[in-house]
Amino acid sequence: MATTASSRPVAATPAEGRTASFYISAIVRYGLLSLIALIAFMPFVLSFLGTFKTNVELTTFPPKILPDQWGWENWARVWAFSLPSIDGAVMPRWIWNSTWLALVNVVSQLFFCSLAGYAFARMRFPGRDIIYSFIIATMAIPGVITMIPGFVFFARLGWINTFWPLIVPSIVTPFGILMLTQFFKSIPKELEEAAAIDGLSRFGSYLQIALPLSRPALITLAILSFQGSWNNFTAPLLFLQRPEMMTLTVGMNFFRTQFSNDFSAILVGAMFNAIPVLVLFFVLNRYFLESASYSGLAGQ
Amino acid sequence: MATATPAAPAGRPSRARSLARREAITAYLFIAPYLIVAAVFTVGLLVYAFGISFTSLTASFAAANARFVGIDNYLRAMTDADFLAALGNAFWYFVIVSFFQTIGAILLAVTLNAKLQGMRVYRTLLYSPSVASSIVMSLIFLWLYLPTGFINYLLGTDIPWLTTPDRIFAPLWGAVGLGGVPAFLQGPSVAWASIMVLSIFTTIPTFMVMFLTALQDVPGFVYEAAAIDGATGPKAFWYITLPLLRPVIALVVILGTIGTFQVFDQVAILTKGGPLKTTLTPAFLIYQKTLGTGTQAEAGFAAAMAFILAFVIVAITLVQRRMIEQD
Predict the structure, then answer these.
(1) Partner-chain residue, chosen from A168, A234, A270, that has the shortest CB–CB distance to B264
(2) Which of B10, B57, B236, B320 lies at a CB distance of 3.0 to 4.6 Å from B300, suitable for a disulfide?
(3) Are residues A193 and A149 in the same domain?
(4) Residues A279 and A205 in one domain
(5) From CA B196, how far away is CA B193, in angstroms rounded?
């Protein structure tokens, strides 16, 4: 801009006028965004600092931002937390349950959603459009509302206090299929057509051509499904009632009882739950934010 | 797509047909996992749950004592005080949360949508409340909302936010001499409004990103042309940005409706429906009745309430869609 302005004196005055207002608007923007960012991130900072405080410090007024003494006692205590009916510490178990369930969800959704998405994007078969519309329609079903009465259904299957209700219904999701169908449609198919002439099977061209070209969409889906499973609360609350089977989101409630809250333990538990997804988010935030461009799928 | 030429020379059609059949078989193999899961866990589960909503099923495992009771559960739900109170609470939650989360997300997206250094960093920081689980955010706010907590400290108050049943619009009615209006009209309780604030705080970033994506698709010349016509600043926002965002606003409002009517996590963690049932929501009530936590298990009745709520949600989103398409 500056170079064009200097080379063309006629345009100089309006350009300078714009620069002044540009700087003002930039300063206002930075100020406003800094304030909002502070508010948005403050709960995490305060509760992380809170994990180093004693329960007395955490509940006295006025609250202080920094702990009186720094120490990892709360973290050690929560890590070693045990329940009467169970041998050993439960916290590592809850973290493990949350982790492996999330990983199983990621792997199965990547495979089965991409397989179905490939069929909808690239193949011709009778009933394709009807089934695709059906998938879109099922996304309008209010999930929580149907899942809770579904408890009876899972009870009949004998699946209460097993991990099956958290694995099998979500091995392939409508959202994942729609998202990957859209992505496969957006990549050119000449490569696959050429490969087909060379005798590559449908599965081969899915595996060797379409999948490698879809890395960004697959990473986005992987992150979303990891986050969805790791943060899930309703399903594990319903189906996993034995303490040693619980996930982190449900297990943490042992620190909260009707009559007292063990706040230092609650905050450490919250950090165990929040830090992995926050780290994942900061490392891969490009893909997280990309997911927004697919969220329109849910409203079609 | 239409590369299979129907006008192929004679003799080919049967070969083409067998190829098409092979293609169809392969495609069905590819989508078979989805079809099986959808048949059992979407259609099957829905049919099953719909079936039990017409029975007197109590505990989840006690099929033996379940009788067919017709639409009794539905009739009972329509007059059940708890369910009606829960629907009222959910309605306030829907109105207030979806309003503020939409407005907040638009304003935040517009502020972020500038070609300035460091916007990526801000976007990342601002998105973080939406990354953590609702459980984490609820537990953190449980602490921040303490009478001795940071929120009271900042406001200079000592309100027990999550245990105060006073309704927030009651003083307004009192001021005009109509203190005795029905509880629903007196608005949400302080506890319920506190959960709304938490919920707005955590959902704004999700929707902000959707608006931001849409804004970044708007070509720059649109604003340049508008500036020539004298539309800058708030004028440009009102006459250009908002109309362009219409489809995204519609989507956010519909997603917000579906989400807010199903609110469950925050209630299960923070208030369990209290104080005085002012934070009781349909989803939490259905959960309690299905499993019999803190009440007697009545799975059939719970299923009926679930279908009524699902109907309400679908009806409201259909009306919203209709309104959006008409304008």
Answers:
(1) A234
(2) B57
(3) yes
(4) yes
(5) 5
What is the distance between the terminal CA atoms of chain A, rounded to a whole angstrom? 41
| B132/A295 CB distance under 8 A | no
- Residue B327: band (very low, low, confident or very high) from pLDDT cuts 50, 70, 90: low
3-class SS of residue B167: strand
Lowest pLDDT segment from A116-120, A158-162, A198-202, B185-189: A198-202
- The alpha carbon of B249 is separated from its chain's Cα centroid by a whole number of angstroms, namely 14
Residue A183 near chain B (CB below 8 Å): no
Q: Does A77 touch chain B if contact means CB atoms closer than 8 Å? A: no
Number of inter-chain CB pairs under 8 A, A vs B: 271
Domain boundary among the residues A28, A60, A78 is at A78
Same domain, A222 and A282: yes
Tell me the fold of B72-326.
MetI-like fold (1.10.3720)
Decide which of A28, A51, A78 is a domain's last residue.
A78
Indicate which CATH number applies to the domain containing A231.
Answer: 1.10.3720.10
- Answer yes or no: is pLDDT of B189 > 90: yes
Amino acid symbol at B147: P
For residue A256, which residues of chain B lie inside 8 Å, CB to CB?
Answer: 139, 142, 269
- If you write DSSP's letter for every residue of A284-296 in order, what string do you get? SHHHHHHGGGGGG
Between chains, do B140 and A58 touch, taking CB under 8 Å as contact? no
- pLDDT tier, A187 (very low <50, low <70, confident <90, very high otherwise): confident
pLDDT in tens, B122-171: 888 898 888 899 999 999 999 999 999 999 999 999 999 999 999 999 99
Gyration radius (Cα) of chain A, Å:
26
Q: Which pLDDT score, from 0 to 100, does residue A18 have?
A: 61
* Nearest-by-Cβ selection for A278 from B46, B131, B307: B131
Does A123 lie in the same domain as A9? Answer: no
Length of chain B: 327
Tokens of A50: 């809170």
Same domain, A275 and A294: yes
Coil, strand or helix at B55: strand
Please give the tally of structural domains in chain A.
Answer: 2
- CB-based contact, A221 to chain B, within 8 Å: no
Structure-block tokens of residue B312: 């309400």
**Predicted local confidence at residue A295, as pLDDT:** 61
Amino acid letter, residue B103: I
> Which residues lie closer than 8 Å to A72 by C-beta, 6 or more apart?
A52
Tens of pLDDT along B82-135? 999 999 999 999 999 999 999 999 999 999 888 888 888 888 889 888 889 999
A110 and A72 share one domain: no
What is the predicted ipTM? 0.88
Q: Does A23 touch chain B (CB under 8 A)?
A: no
Asked if A146 and A55 sit in the same domain, the reply is no
User: What pTM was computed for the model?
Assistant: 0.90
| Shortest Cα–Cα distance, A86 to chain B (Å) | 23
A69 and A152 both lie in a single domain:
no
Cross-strand partners of A256: A261
User: The domain containing residue A57 runs over which residues?
Assistant: 2-78
Long-range interactions of A12-20: CB distance < 8 A, separation 24+ = none
Using DSSP, state whether B68 is helix, strand or coil. Answer: strand
Domain ranges of chain B: 72-326
